[in-house]
Amino acid sequence: MDFGEEEQAEQLVQILQSSRIRDKVVAKFNLLAHYEIDPNDENKYYKLNNEYTSHFEFTRTRYGSIQIDVLDRNAELAAKMANSIVDLIDTVKNDMIRERTKPAFDINKRKMLQMLHDRDSILNLLDSLSGIGVVSLAVRSNLFQALVDSKNSQEKITIKENLALNTKYGSQYDALEHMRNEMIIKIEDFRVSYEQAESDANANFNHKFVVEKAVKADKKEKPKRMIIVLVASLGGFIFGVLFLLIRQRIQELKLQA
User: Fold this and answer.
1) What is the DSSP letter of 224?
2) Phi, psi of 5 (to 5 degrees)
3) How confident is the model at residue 2 (pLDDT cuts 50, 70, 90)?
4) What is the mean pLDDT of residues 225-238?
5) pTM
6) Is the Cβ–Cβ distance between 173 and 131 less than 8 Å?
7) For 85-123, b where at least 16 C-beta lie within 10 A, e where not — what string?
8) What does the alpha-carbon distance between residue 221 and residue 11 come to, in Å, rounded to a whole number?
C-alpha cells in the first residue's frame, strides 16, 4: 500500500473513532436508553462512552481496508448500526471538507460580488453618458465628418451640441470603457478559481468503497455468560482444593517435626 493510501486509511479510522460519528450513531439508535443508562446520571456521558468503545471497534486490515465490528445482544441491530456507520462516512467527511473549503469560498464569493458590483457601476455610468449623447471614440471621430457633410442647419446645430458634449465627457467615457474592459477580463480570469472554490465547498464526494455489508451474525462471537461464570467458579473450586491440600500438608510436617 502506498504512503498516500496508508495515510488515507489512517485518517478514515480517525474519522470512524471521532465524536462526529459516535454522536450521530448514539442519537439515531438512542444508545443511552439501549445501554440502560439513566439520563439523569451526572456521569451518563462517561458511561455511554465506555459502552460505545467496548461495543464498537474500527481496525485496519492488512489489505488496507477498514473493518467495523459492532457487538450487541441484538445481532440484527448490531448489523444495522455497522451499516449506518458506513453510510455516515461520506456525510461526516464531506462536512469536514466543507468546514475547510467554505471559508475560502466565502472570501472568493465576496470578491466576485464586489467585482460584479464595480462592473455594474461602470456600466451604469456609461449608460448615463450614452443617454445624453456621449459616444465611443470610434463613433466620435465620425461626428466631425458628419458636421462637414450636413446640409441642414438644424442638423448642424444638433451635431455641434453633440460634439460639445463629447468634447466635455469624451475622455471620461473613454476611461470608463477601458475600466469596463479591464474589469470584464479580471472577472473572467477570476471565475475559474471562483467556480473551483464553489465546487469544493458544495460538492458531495464518495470517500468509501464497501467491500462487504454488515450482516446479522449467526452466533455470538463472545463466550456466553454461563460459560464465563462456570469457568470462574471452576477456577475458584480448584484454587480452594489446592489451598486445603497445602494447609493439610503443612500441618503434617509440623507434627512430624
Assistant:
1) P
2) -70, -40
3) very low
4) 41
5) 0.60
6) no
7) beebbeebbbeebbeebeeebeebeeebeebeeebeebe
8) 28
More confident residue, 195 or 233: 195
CA distance 20 to 92: 7
What 72-81 contacts at long range (C-beta under 8 Å, 24+ apart), as own/partner pairs, is 75/216, 75/217, 75/220, 76/216, 77/29, 77/34, 78/214, 78/216, 78/217, 79/214, 79/215, 79/216, 79/217, 80/29, 80/214, 81/25, 81/29, 81/56
* The one-letter amino acid at 181: N
Assess contact for 173 and 136: CB atoms under 8 A.
yes
Q: Is residue 11 within 8 Å of 21, Cβ to Cβ? A: no
Question: pLDDT band for position 133 (50/70/90)?
Answer: confident
205 neighbors 95 (Cβ within 8 angstroms): no
**Residue 84 pLDDT > 50:** yes
Q: Give the span between the Cα atoms of 16 and 215, in whole angstroms.
A: 19
In angstroms, rounded to a whole number, what is the distance separating the alpha carbons of residues 211 and 66?
A: 9
| Contact in structure between 48 and 119 (CB atoms under 8 Å) | no
The predicted structure's pLDDT at residue 185? 96
| pLDDT, tens digit, 9 for 90 and up, residues 43-52 | 999 999 999 9
φ, ψ for residue 156 (rounded to 5)?
-65, -40
Q: Nearest-CA neighbor of 166 among 206, 198, 216, 132?
A: 132
Average pLDDT for 58-80: 87
Residues 6+ apart with CB under 8 A from 52: 22, 25, 26, 31
